[in-house]
Design brief:
The protein is α+β, with helices and mostly antiparallel strands. The chain has one domain: Roll (Nuclear Transport Factor 2, Chain: A), CATH 3.10.450. The chain is about 30% helix and about 45% strand. It has helices spanning about 1-10, 20-35, 45-50, 70-80; strands at about 50-60, 60-65, 90-95, 100-105, 110-120, 125-140, 145-155. Strands 1, 2, 3, 4, 5, 6 and 7 form a 7-stranded mixed sheet that branches.
Length: about 160
C-alpha cells in the first residue's frame, strides 16, 4: 500500500502545451505577486503557492530562503512593516514581452523574464524604483502551481 502511494505521489503530471502552458504559468505568476505585494498580507494563500522546499536566491540579498517556513517568516516580517500608515509599499509588474515559459516534462515549467518594481510611501505617489531579471521553476500538482526555485538578479535602479 505505501509503495502504491509513493508511486502516485511521484507520478509525472500532465502539462498543457504551448500557449496554454504559458498562460497557466503567467496566471500563477500574476496571482503570486499580487498576493505577495498586497498590503493586506495573504499568508495562507502565499504559502499555498510555495513548495515545501522552495529556494530563493537574490543578487542583492543572497540566499533568501531554503524552505517555505523560512520564506514565510520573512514574508510575515515584511507584512508587519507595511501596516504603518507611512510605510513603503511596493508593486511588481511583469514585462509581458520578456516572458518565456518552457516545459519541464512531468514536473512543471521554467519561467524567465523581466519585472519592474514600483514603490510609494504611504498613500503617496508611486514611482518606478527599478527593474530586474528573474527565473523561476514552477511545479504543477493536483493542488495547482507552486514555486520551487526562484532566482532574482540583474537588479538595476530606475534612471
Amino acid at each position: 500500500m505505501l509503495s502504491a502511494i509513493a508511486l502516485l505521489a511521484a507520478a509525472p503530471v500532465a502539462l498543457p502545451e504551448g500557449a496554454a502552458l504559458r498562460e497557466e504559468v503567467r496566471a500563477a505568476d500574476d496571482r503570486f505577486f499580487s498576493l505577495f505585494f498586497d498590503t493586506r498580507c495573504h499568508s495562507t494563500e502565499v504559502r499555498a503557492m510555495l513548495a515545501d522546499d522552495v529556494e530563493m536566491y537574490h543578487d542583492k540579498g543572497g540566499v533568501v530562503a531554503t524552505s517555505a517556513a523560512q520564506f514565510m517568516a520573512d514574508y510575515e516580517k515584511v507584512c508587519a512593516s507595511r501596516a504603518a500608515p507611512d510605510a513603503w509599499r511596493s508593486r511588481r509588474e511583469l514585462v509581458p514581452a520578456s516572458l518565456t515559459v518552457d516545459p519541464v516534462p512531468g514536473l512543471g515549467a521554467i519561467e524567465d523574464g523581466e519585472h519592474r518594481f514600483y514603490e510609494r510611501r504611504g498613500d503617496g505617489p508611486e514611482r518606478l524604483a527599478g527593474t530586474a531579471q528573474f527565473t523561476q521553476l514552477w511545479v504543477k500538482s493536483e493542488a495547482g502551481w507552486k514555486l520551487k526555485r526562484i532566482f532574482s538578479f540583474a537588479h538595476r535602479a530606475a534612471s
